[in-house]
Amino acid sequence: MSIRWSALKVSEAMDKVEYQVNLAEVFLPEARSIASQVRQVDNLPGYLDDRLCRLIFTIERLDEVKAAIESVRKSIPDGAIEAERKRLRRGSQQSLIPGPLGQPRGRPGQGQV
């Protein structure tokens, strides 16, 4: 059974998402460090400390982002990407095979003169 959505587009989008996540990954340790330092501000209210802890926790969950990307990839049916690539390589050409009685295909009455 063929799928109606583009497995290739989904796969390519996940490649782009993963690329962006990998670019961001370089900066996350510094972001975590800065957020941790802010927690040391004198008289910091507890509600801000809670939010900073949540921020640090979220930064540390990068592996979950990567796992989510992989989960999307694994959800694409086996062979769907390659089948779509083959279909795109073949393209969509009009048939050059003549119609009945040697007439070109087309609407009735519109043969060559």
Topology, please?
Layout: H1 7-25, H2 28-38, H3 46-59, H4 62-75, H5 80-90
Helix pairs in contact: 1-4, 2-3
Outline the structure in words.
This protein is mostly helical. The protein is 61% helix and 0% strand. The protein has helices at residues 7-25, 28-38, 46-59, 62-75, 80-90. Helix 1 runs antiparallel to helix 4 and helix 2 runs antiparallel to helix 3 (46-59). The two termini are 43 Å apart.
Features:
single chain, 113 residues, mainly alpha, rod-shaped
Give the number of DSSP strands.
0
Q: Give the % helix.
A: 55-70%
Question: Distance between termini?
Answer: 43 Å
The share of residues in extended strands comes to under 5%
What can be said about this structure in brief?
With 113 residues, the protein is mostly helical. The protein is 61% helix and 0% strand.
